[in-house]
Design goal:
Layout lengths: L1 E4 L1 H11 L5 E5 L12 E2 L9 E2 L3 E4 L1 H4 L8 E9 L13 E5 L11 E4 L3 E4 L2 E4 L9 E2 L10 E3 L7 H9 L4 E5 L3 E7 L3 E2 L10 E2 L1 H12 L3 E8 L3 H10 L5 E5 L10 H7 L2 E8 L1 E2 L5 E5 L6 E5 L3 H19 L9 E6 L3 E2 L5 E11 L2 E6 L9 H4 L3 E5 L5 E2 L4 E6 L13
Parallel strand pairs: 1-19, 6-7, 14-17, 14-18, 15-16, 18-22, 20-25, 23-26
Antiparallel strand pairs: 2-13, 3-12, 4-11, 5-7, 5-8, 6-10, 9-10, 19-21, 21-22, 23-29, 24-28, 25-26, 25-27, 27-29
Helix pairs in contact: 1-7, 4-7, 5-6
Bound molecules: adenosine monophosphate and magnesium ion.
Length: about 425
């Protein structure tokens, strides 16, 4: 087992071990945010026929080419096509057909004249403006043609994709399975949120932040509870998670007396790939995989709440996204200007919790304060994690750095822009 590797090496090892999950068929209605596992080719042409973009009249150019208010064209309204109706009768010379928006235009139609450009009395239609060729006609197939590849595997199903699938008559869709993530915590000091915190006990908040991190990216958390600091209880909890796709534990992977996670994992047949990553927060991260084709991945996250969240963010999240079939695995990066000077020792890469603000055209990053990995409030203030490279010792105020954007709402505006 390797130890003390760089974050980039750790990520490479993890992603090399991470499978893309198989496909399942789900109702298109339920597929928001899922990732398409197979291409979608259109079984139909949309719109299926040339149709009117306006309420008005289908006409022939030969009859209306010189129409104007001064010298209108006079036509006879010979029939009407409603939206959803059929237009099989050919438009003859001197004829117009009443068409509503979306109605197919009859064969022989050259253009649609808007209702506003006409006057009508009985079946006598006066056309006051000459339409251009095919004006106000939507072409058959201008959206989709039969056989078109409309969505590629890897497409993320958002509102427009789901609308498109619906318009093609697709009620179900093949998407990658969502990983099931078993979450366990370990420590005699831990209680559930309604538990008694007398005598230095603390709430196992990691279970909540990690479950929420899973949900936020579309994975399915399964909470396994708190293991006591005994080897048997840790083993019992890990066994309960062996059918999941991923096990995430927090605490118990360092070298303290009560750290049973590593020996238990080895006993259960987990091949640990590394322990310890040159980063801060979050050095004591372990990663491995259970033997066998569908053996779950295992992440032993550090116990400190910020370390647990940051290591999840940097390593578990990209792995879960790969499992779900996403092509883009990582958070958006922005170049941000530092609002103050940051200093550290050389050696470890720091992920600095920062707020992000727009100031005269630039994105400015400010540290959220106390960098202790126990201060969970600093995470609530952080819109991003600023990359302070391993060998750097100072980032001067005003200099630029890459920031991983955790909260895209920092881009939310206080004005509508129109
Ligand atoms: P450990 O890795 O067990 O040494 O834990 C490191 C620190 O993280 C200790 O202060 C623990 O109390 C804290 N901690 C461990 N597990 C959790 C948890 N599930 N929720 C919140 N804090 C935790
Ligand atoms: Mg502990």
């Amino acid at each position: 087992m390797r130890t003390g590797i760089t974050p980039a090496e750790a990520l490479r090892v993890i992603l090399d071990e991470t499978p893309v999950l198989a496909a399942e068929t789900v109702a298109a209605r339920e597929a928001l945010g899922r990732v398409l596992a197979a291409p979608v080719d259109s079984p139909r042409t949309l719109p299926p026929a040339d149709n009117s973009a306006m309420d008005g009249y289908a006409v022939r150019l030969a009859d209306t080419a010189r129409a104007s208010e001064a010298s209108p064209a006079v036509l006879r309204v010979s029939f009407e096509v409603a939206a959803g109706g059929e237009a099989s009768v050919e438009l003859g010379p001197g004829q117009a057909a009443r068409v509503l928006t979306g109605a197919p235009v009859p064969p022989g139609t050259d253009a649609v004249v808007r209702q506003e450009d006409t006057e009508r009395e009985g079946d006598r239609l006066t056309v006051l403006a000459a339409p251009g060729p095919r004006e106000h006609i939507r072409d058959a197939g201008e959206d989709v043609r039969i056989g078109d590849r409309v969505l590629e595997p890897g497409a993320v199903l958002g509102p427009s994709e789901l609308g498109l699938l619906a318009s093609l008559g697709r009620g179900t869709v093949a998407v990658h399975q969502r990983p099931r993530v078993a979450i366990l915590s370990g420590g005699d000091e831990l209680v559930e949120p309604d538990g008694d915190v007398a005598g230095g006990r603390i709430v196992s908040s990691n279970s909540y932040s990690i479950a929420a991190q899973c949900r936020a990216l579309g994975a399915e958390p399964v909470y396994l509870g708190i293991a006591r600091d005994t080897r048997d209880d840790v083993e019992r909890h890990f066994r309960a998670g062996l059918r999941a796709d991923v096990l995430v534990s927090s605490a118990g992977v360092s070298v303290g007396d009560h750290d049973h996670v590593r020996p238990v994992l080895e006993k259960l047949g987990c091949r640990l790939a590394f322990w310890g990553v040159q980063m801060k927060p979050g050095y004591p991260l372990a990663f491995g995989r259970f033997e066998g084709e569908s053996g779950p991945l295992v992440f032993g996250l550090p116990g400190n709440p910020v370390s647990a969240m940051v290591t999840f963010e940097e390593f578990v999240r990209p792995a879960l996204r790969r499992m779900m079939g996403h092509r883009g695995l990582f958070r958006p990066l922005v170049r941000a200007r530092l609002g103050e000077t940051l200093r550290k020792k050389a050696g470890r890469l720091h992920f600095v919790r920062v707020s992000l603000a727009h100031e005269d055209g630039a994105v400015v990053a400010h540290s959220t304060g106390n960098p202790s990995s126990g201060v969970l409030r600093s995470m609530t203030l952080a819109a991003g994690l600023l990359i302070f490279p391993a060998e750097a010792t100072e980032l001067a105020a005003g200099a630029e750095a890459d920031v991983q954007v955790l909260d895209p709402d920092f881009l939310a505006s206080d004005r509508p822009g129109f």
